[in-house]
Design goal:
Rossmann fold; alpha/beta; elongated; 9 strands
């Protein structure tokens, strides 16, 4: 009898299937990091989605028994996660970021940036003395950072720039979903080009920053994401260099530039030794985000 057939016969409750799915994921050596960081949480996301249940499911429901049809739906989703190595948010079509749900699919990267913590705190303490009137999000992808900033600064206008037409379609869906179309302007183009002449108190970016060597080492799950959103030249610094070069001209006096560069942080620090980077620390984990003030930029 196959593993799935045994599960169909032997497992009955939501808890049963979460435990079984987690065991299967761990045995298969899957990679976690696209919204969850362990096999139990990954299994829980997929089981709830297959059963059309929200993330706020009361604990007493986890002992509820499944129908055979529901069991089949859960098993099919778990099998796809293992066999195709598709990250859970692409299977469910949804990812959470800064406390908000976003539609995601393979046209955009899955939101997982520590920027969520910055957004939830209103970029404190760095932005506390600034009056934020205009915010720019470069390489917006799904629009999650731009929309999060709109929520954090409800009186600010937010520009969101994206080069990929496919990603912009997803961002438009999310802007409509959160009803921030009057506040967030989506702009098609390459980095600074669509915002020529505009200045901001806050510029944020989670750009491509993966170099060739790191791309070759990425787990299979990352192969489902758009390479355009990950790869940035041999050393991973091509886009970051252009952001640094153009930032001063687009920041108001006292303005702030926040950029995520992930594992490329040591390479960034080595490439620009003259810049006084402030490397941020996060209570919920994550690293590789720097801050530069307008006056510190070339």
């Amino acid at each position: 009898m196959s593993s799935s057939a045994q599960a169909l016969h032997s497992l009955h409750t939501i808890t049963d299937f979460v435990r079984w799915g987690a065991s299967r994921f761990a045995a298969a050596g899957l990679h976690f990091g696209h919204g969850t960081d362990d096999p139990v949480d990954e299994a829980l996301v997929l089981v709830r989605h297959a059963l059309h249940l929200g993330h706020d499911l009361p604990p007493e429901f986890y002992g509820a028994r499944l129908t055979d049809e529901e069991k089949g739906a859960v098993l099919a989703l778990i099998e796809r996660r293992i066999e195709e190595r598709i990250p859970a948010p692409y299977l469910t079509g949804e990812a959470w970021f800064a406390g908000l749900p976003f539609h995601v699919d393979p046209r955009v990267l899955i939101p997982r940036s520590p920027f969520a913590e910055l957004i939830e705190t209103g970029f404190a303490p760095w932005a506390e003395r600034l009056e934020i009137h205009r915010v720019l999000d470069l390489c917006t992808g799904s629009g999650c950072i731009a929309i999060g900033c709109a929520m954090a600064f409800p009186d600010a206008a937010v520009d969101a720039v994206e080069l990929s037409p496919e990603a912009l379609e997803v961002a438009r869906q999310n802007v409509a979903r959160h009803d921030v179309g009057a506040q967030v302007e989506l702009l098609a183009g390459d980095l600074w080009a669509p915002v020529a002449g505009r200045r901001y108190e806050l510029v944020v970016s989670n750009p491509p920053y993966v170099g060739d060597a790191e791309m070759a080492r990425l787990p299979p799950e990352y192969g489902h994401e758009p390479e355009m959103g990950l790869r940035s030249g041999t050393a991973g610094l091509d886009v970051v260099a252009r952001i640094i070069a153009g930032a001063r001209a687009h920041l108001q006096p006292g303005g702030l530039l926040f950029v995520e560069v992930g594992n490329s942080a040591p390479a960034v620090a080595a490439a620009w030794p003259e810049l006084p980077f402030t490397w941020l620390e996060f209570a919920r984990g994550g690293s590789g985000v720097f801050l530069l003030k307008a006056e510190e930029l070339p």
